[in-house]
Amino acid sequence: MSEHSAPSPPARILVVDDDPTVAEVVTGYLGRSGYAVEHAADGPDALLRAGERRPDLVVLDLMLPGLDGLEVCRRLRETGPVPVIMLTARGDEEDRITGLEVGADDYVTKPFSPRELVLRVESVLRRSRGAGPTAVRTVLRDADLTVDPVTRRATRSGRELALTLREFDLLAYFLERPGAAHTREELMKRVWGWDFGDLSTVTVHVRRLRAKIEDDPARPRLIQTVWGVGYRFEPRKDGGAA
């Protein structure tokens, strides 16, 4: 065995944007940051490239000709987990929320700082490689829920849950702190790593997570709303850490 291990290959990032200027700036900054960058100018080309060789992360413009970013995101998520950062116009809050609901892990609003985008990419990739905000290294359990922060696998009644990166981190954060009430600002800072931002991001992810772990998402038993505060994970008596 060699004394020195081989260096890890650079993360592969697919940038999907039909604006040549934006695409050139984004691919340039990401390339200079050490990533292997590929560009697609429309949705069908993006899906084709992702199908041929799955990227480690996709930077996806919302407004694309023919097949828009929301549909591209949906189809990417159908084929398996892949981190997605969506580029949106500043005033399109409804579109940003819809993007999060179809599975985007993060978003950046235009006009944006290329350096901010690079930082967001770094943050999402760290989480996708098992370096999320959770410090607990034991398997977390609550009744039929099991979350392994090391392998980043979550199951319910033995069946693996299809969680996005942020959904996984949010569930792990709740399980680590059963019974505690959390503000949306706290969740944004601790789970997303943002000191400020659109708090509806947290609301959307809680709603998505409830749909995947609650028996009746309309009457949540596990993730409860604490009016005037935020949310609380209510453990069941047979839950706990392994």
From TrEMBL:
<dbReference type="InterPro" id="IPR039420">
    <property type="entry name" value="WalR-like"/>
</dbReference>
<keyword id="KW-0597">Phosphoprotein</keyword>
<dbReference type="InterPro" id="IPR036388">
    <property type="entry name" value="WH-like_DNA-bd_sf"/>
</dbReference>
<keyword id="KW-0804">Transcription</keyword>
<feature type="modified residue" description="4-aspartylphosphate">
    <location>
        <position position="61"/>
    </location>
</feature>
<dbReference type="GO" id="GO:0000156">
    <property type="term" value="F:phosphorelay response regulator activity"/>
</dbReference>
<dbReference type="InterPro" id="IPR001789">
    <property type="entry name" value="Sig_transdc_resp-reg_receiver"/>
</dbReference>
<dbReference type="GO" id="GO:0000976">
    <property type="term" value="F:transcription cis-regulatory region binding"/>
</dbReference>
<dbReference type="InterPro" id="IPR016032">
    <property type="entry name" value="Sig_transdc_resp-reg_C-effctor"/>
</dbReference>
<dbReference type="GO" id="GO:0005829">
    <property type="term" value="C:cytosol"/>
</dbReference>
<feature type="DNA-binding region" description="OmpR/PhoB-type">
    <location>
        <begin position="137"/>
        <end position="235"/>
    </location>
</feature>
<dbReference type="InterPro" id="IPR011006">
    <property type="entry name" value="CheY-like_superfamily"/>
</dbReference>
<protein>
    <submittedName>
        <fullName>Chemotaxis protein CheY</fullName>
    </submittedName>
</protein>
<dbReference type="GO" id="GO:0006355">
    <property type="term" value="P:regulation of DNA-templated transcription"/>
</dbReference>
<dbReference type="Pfam" id="PF00072">
    <property type="entry name" value="Response_reg"/>
</dbReference>
<keyword id="KW-0902">Two-component regulatory system</keyword>
<feature type="domain" description="Response regulatory">
    <location>
        <begin position="12"/>
        <end position="125"/>
    </location>
</feature>
<dbReference type="GO" id="GO:0032993">
    <property type="term" value="C:protein-DNA complex"/>
</dbReference>
<keyword id="KW-0238">DNA-binding</keyword>
<dbReference type="Pfam" id="PF00486">
    <property type="entry name" value="Trans_reg_C"/>
</dbReference>
<feature type="domain" description="OmpR/PhoB-type">
    <location>
        <begin position="137"/>
        <end position="235"/>
    </location>
</feature>
<dbReference type="InterPro" id="IPR001867">
    <property type="entry name" value="OmpR/PhoB-type_DNA-bd"/>
</dbReference>
<keyword id="KW-0805">Transcription regulation</keyword>
